[in-house]
Design a protein that fits this description.
Strand content: 5-15%
Helix content: 40-55%
Structural class: mainly alpha
Radius of gyration: 33 Å
Strand order of the largest sheet: 1-2
Length: 518
């Protein structure tokens, strides 16, 4: 028979196990309750916790390390530790010398040979320097646009070479790249390169591409994620962006989220999903209308092809909180303000390559003064001009909201002399270099106001000293006097969506899903 000591120990063990089980159960209940509280407070905010809950199905339950399944996070801390110098060097030496880690042509042979230079972050010769040198020796010709020569465009590891169509020029370029490879170890991977001809038949392009050893392509094509040579005024050109919106919305379960969660996703994700394309091209109204419908259906809890009742007019929801809305904002104003920023940049950065090309083709003002641009030319700058012209027809002059700071324009101080001047669109510096004689005018002043303004004009420029500070544009709709997308978007939405509603009451101490319904 079992002694009393063993029975007592067994009872104590069972009692302790029961207490441990009860404590574990209470801890689980406590964590579940805390999780509900945290979700109630932060579950609908634009936070890491909210987006993490949406993607929680994409998690790692464990790792296979040396043939053993490890699910204890404490045993895989080395994944979060930084790479050591020895680990990086060992990976480089384990790779084949003829392999390249990226599409830039940098092979592992180069990294191994010049490891001391690479490890100390000393830059080797670049392709840009090599091309500029051979171009200065007239060994390679670029394309000249009104005096501005373009031979190559580079962004990170992407290179676009531009040259007049001439098979001999292509062979010369290959010899230059080959010499560059022997000198530096950088080799262009022709198998990943494409040859495109402008105004050249595809058969001719294919013939030259076969001789070079690269692939042949044609317009339109994608460069850095942007379509080139495509008519972006057509809805069919925006199918990629529309499909991206559909794929993003389809991964969310609208019926499993509150209105607060819908609002967060519509503003933080769907409001900026197309920012890359919309910062370059003017989106057609048909595209904006479809994207607007997708955002509205998701906000009201409907699936892609479902229809549901809208509690409030959608334009009211899009308007700012001061107008009684939720401050989502329209994609129309977002797109137009992103495009308008190109005009802003063209003034502040006149030496950029794209600004010099625009001015060499369409004049010093880039056709921004008369706002006349041929409809047959489908380029991003044409979208800027057409947008400004469309707004001006609706009595919305965005350019007038950007006055030139630091001084008043001479054209405003001396309007009669400005009307007589031959050179109306030059800077003050260029005007001073032309002299102060009447030979710069269509005719001499005829007394009265003209003579008075001319005397003041001459007196001002004789004692005028230029400061080494460039002019800049202001922005009257922001206290910082600097253009911003948020302030410009609020301005356009206030004009387009003005409904005179009562300001939305928003309490930051309560969850967002409650604020939506207040």
């Amino acid at each position: 028979m079992e002694d009393e000591g063993s029975a007592t120990l067994r009872e104590q063990r069972v009692s302790l196990l029961k207490e441990i089980s009860d404590l574990d159960h209470l801890a689980q209940v406590d964590l579940a309750q805390k999780g509900k509280i945290q979700w109630g407070i932060e579950g609908d905010e634009n936070s890491k916790f909210f987006h993490g809950m949406l993607r929680r199905q994409i998690t790692f339950r464990g790792l296979m390390i040396d043939g053993m399944w490890v699910d204890n996070p404490g045993m895989v801390d080395y994944l979060q530790s930084p790479f050591s110098f020895y680990e990086i060097k060992r990976v480089v030496w384990d790779c084949g010398s003829t392999k390249a880690p990226g599409p830039d042509g940098f092979t592992f042979r180069f990294l191994k040979r010049y490891w001391d230079l690479v490890a100390t972050d000393v830059k080797a010769f670049g392709l840009h320097i090599a091309l500029m040198r051979v171009r200065s020796e007239n060994a390679f010709r670029g394309v000249s646009i009104s005096g501005t020569e373009i031979s190559h465009l580079m962004y990170v590891d992407d290179v676009m070479l531009v040259t007049p169509w001439d098979p001999e020029n292509a062979n010369c370029l290959l010899r230059i790249l080959r010499c560059f490879y022997f000198a530096s170890g950088f080799k262009i991977n022709l198998l990943k390169s494409k040859l495109i001809g402008v105004g050249i038949s595809y058969s001719q392009v294919l013939e030259v591409a076969n001789k070079i050893g690269c692939a042949a392509s044609m317009f339109p094509f994608f460069h850095l994620g942007i379509p080139v040579g495509q008519n972006m005024s057509r809805k069919s050109s925006w199918v990629c962006l529309i499909d991206r919106f559909h794929s993003k919305v389809s991964t969310w379960k609208a019926k499993c989220l509150s209105f607060g969660g819908h609002l967060t996703l519509v503003k933080s994700v769907l409001g900026s999903l197309g920012s890359y394309w919309m910062s370059v091209f003017l989106a057609p109204q048909s595209v904006l209308k479809e994207l607007k419908g997708m955002r509205a259906r998701f906000f009201w809890g409907a699936d892609r092809d479902d229809r549901c009742m809208h509690w409030v007019r959608w334009d009211r929801v899009l308007s700012s909180r001061d107008e009684g809305g939720l401050g989502i904002g329209t994609l129309f104003s977002f797109n137009r303000d992103m495009v308008f920023r190109w005009w802003w940049r063209s003034f502040h950065f006149p030496n950029l390559l794209w600004v010099r090309v625009i001015k060499s083709i369409y004049g010093l003002d880039g056709a921004c003064r008369n706002l006349r641009f041929p409809n047959s030319v489908q380029i991003p700058w044409g979208g800027v001009i057409r947008m400004l012209s469309h707004f001006r027809q609706k009595d919305i002059d965005l350019q007038s909201l950007c006055p030139i700071r630091d001084h008043m324009p001479l054209s405003a101080s001396f309007p009669r002399i400005y009307a007589l001047d031959f050179h109306k669109h030059v800077s003050v510096k260029d005007r001073l270099s032309m002299g102060l004689g009447v030979n710069t005018l269509r005719r001499g002043p005829r007394g009265g106001v003209e003579q008075e303004q001319w005397n003041k004009f001459i007196g001002l420029l004789q004692d005028f000293h230029l400061r080494p500070i460039p002019d800049r544009l202001g922005w009257v709709n922001d206290v910082s006097d600097t253009f911003s997308i948020s302030s410009a978007r609020k301005l356009l939405d206030g004009i387009m969506l003005s409904n005179g509603g009562i300001s939305t009451h928003w309490n930051y101490w309560v969850p967002i899903k409650i604020n939506v319904l207040i």
